Amino acid sequence: MAKLIIALLAAATAYNPIRPGRTATKLRAATLEREAKVAEAVDAEVDKLVVTPAIEKAVTELVDEECDVIEPEPECLDEEKKEETKGLLRRLMRSSVSGPTGKSATAADIIDGEMLEKGWEKRGGRGSLRRNLEVWKALARCAFKVLKARKGSSEDKTAAATFARDRLLTLGPTFVKLGQVLSTRTDVLPAEYIDVLKSLQDDVPAFSGERAASIVAKELGVSSVDEVFSDFSKEPIAAASLGQVHLGTLKKNGQKVAVKVQRAGLRELFATDLKNLRKLCELLDSVDPKSDGADRSYIDVFDESEKLLYEEIDYLNEAKNADRFREQFKDDPQVRVPEMIYEYSTPKVLTMEFIESFKLTDIARVEKEGLDRKDLAKRVADTFLYQIVDTAYFHCDPHPGNLAVDTSGNLVYYDFGMMDELSPNVKAGFKEFCFALFEGGPMIDDIQLGVKAKQLVDAVETAGVLAKGADRLSSEQLARYFIRAFKDKQLGKDRSDGPGIKSTLGTELQSLTESQVFRFPSTFTFIFRAIASIDGIGKGLDEDYDLGEFAQPFVTKLIDKVKYGGDNSKKSLAVFGKATGLNAEDVNTALTQPRKIAYLEETMRSIEQGQLKIRVRSLENEMALTRLGTQSSGMTNLLLSSLVLNVASVAKLARIPQLGLFGIAGLLGFSGLSSLLKLSALDKKAAKYTSKEFNS
């Protein structure tokens, strides 16, 4: 930080002052030039202090990890080639994180990469180092295309998105999965990228039926699939990033089944690709300024994704997930989950009941079967809300290929490889959040608004979204604003002409943003992804679809279940008691009111007579002043020590007085350093009052 400040001061003082005689145009030009130079100096210093060390650390760890094995690749034994590889990785990582430089370094990197690849092809084999370079080269080219199209037209962005999608397909299953995740993040990518990347949900190239049959036979321990299936389709009925599905008929009982076959070599490919993605996340964590106030962690999201990805390629784990999901909806006859056939399943082959169904996005087929589109949209929302709010065990990937409907109007769920469960604190906080937001309906008075704001802040703190040491007053004011905005939306009120959040809560919002007290748990990434998929399906079925509207009656039923055990008579009695005041709480308030008024009167009289004094302490200000005083004392003693030392060195004194001055200088210096060392203890003490610890 000190170096950054020095660089700023040097840049700011490097310019001559503007003479009064200059015109307004020259003045503005000079100001813009100065701002540009200052910005350039800041960027250079940030790059030097943050970006470059992070990239150097990532490159060293990546290459050393691949080379520090019993049988390293040939490139690791050639120091010159090893350094060349490191240099290329540095440039590719910089292009991926920061974008291309003015001299189009990305193009040069690609040429270098091609030269390296030609040399490596002669040696044969495809080692991890070469895969690393292939990945970073593709990421750099994608970054170059995307940044170039950033200020271009919609067609330019679509072209860049198409290029990125094709590169992801070329890189393989790991990056196709990454593209699928990104295709749901409307908060991150523009609409042009979302539209193109959505094709990765379904339009993933399939491998041949012969190859699929050989994988199935090998996994089931037979010489040919004909020993198990009387019929096995050559063409897949669906293809995804990690596998594809074929139809079959069991010889044993003639049952029609769906056989899910995993692509070969996924685990080995993941091992290398995920190392590169981890390095990318570490770089993003290093360079992300978090200027929006969110204390996000790309590594946490990566760790959660990595865990789910490895679980997804274990088909026996997927079968168990399907059984649990089916049990979750056992009381809902309109939700179907295929039965798993464990006898003909392995970690790489999954055989299940075949259910005839079609996509919910096939509107023509929905209407042809005479199904109610609005009812379907509502049931899609209800099943999702049940997973998130009630059971906390949810399907992470309910895109149109995994959520279908049969001819009777029953919802059919597929693909249970990516399932997640909210941790107890997130589940409790999320449920309490819904209660605070929805309880009481759209009508709410100011007193209830204050109560619900406190409840909502408690909920997000419990869920680990809000830091424990966050400013409660500012947080509750923000909660009041959002609850009121949500209730107004439910009532159909238009707030577009009213004051915005910045004008209403400018200071409070800035305080919370600067202190970075918000952090979304990594699980929320998959909740947002599921919401995006569900929202797309719902709006395709019903143009008036609104998940918030469907949530109101759903959460109201859940509140009734929690408060009254689902007993309508208890609820009616409670509502009657609240309306008439004939309930224990209101009766107690009425009986104790005279005593409270008397106490209030006695307190006011004490204040008037000067018998009661109000004292307000600000611990933060007290600690800040203590720290400032300690720092000032330390600096003063150090300056005096320096002054006495100079006098003792320069002045022509006898030896004894000179030694005495040296002793005084030493004591002053020791005292100054001791004061400065106390600052760390004061900072630790202050940290207890400004904790940014999150629930986990």
What does this protein structure show overall?
The chain has 696 residues and is an alpha+beta fold. The chain is 65% helix and 6% strand. It contains 26 helices and eleven strands. The chain has helices at residues 2-12, 24-67, 74-77, 79-98, 105-123, 128-149, 154-171, 173-182, 191-197, 209-220, 266-287, 298-312, 315-328, 363-368, 373-391, 424-438, 446-462, 472-491, 501-504, 506-515, 523-541, 547-564, 568-580, 584-608, 619-650, 655-689; strands spanning 229-232, 238-239, 243-250, 256-262, 335-336, 349-353, 358-359, 393-395, 403-405, 411-413, 419-421. The strands form three sheets. Strands 1, 2, 3, 4 and 6 form a five-stranded antiparallel sheet that branches. A four-stranded mixed sheet has the order 5-10-9-7, covered by helices on one side. The longest helix is centred in the N-terminal third of the chain and has 44 residues, at 24-67. The radius of gyration is 33 Å and the shape is flat. The chain starts with a helix and ends in a 7-residue tail after the last helix. Residues 1-28 and 95-126 have low confidence and may be disordered.
Roughly what percent helix? 55-70%
Count of helix runs: 26
The structure class reads: alpha+beta
Compute the average pLDDT: 75
Question: Into which percentage range does the β-strand content fall?
Answer: 5-15%
The coarse silhouette is flat
Taking pLDDT < 50 over at least 5 consecutive residues as the criterion, the unreliable ranges are 1-28, 95-126
Taking the alpha carbons of the first and last residues, their distance comes to 31 Å
Radius of gyration: 33 Å
Q: Which sheet architecture does the biggest sheet show? A: 5 strands, antiparallel
How many beta-strand elements?
A: 11
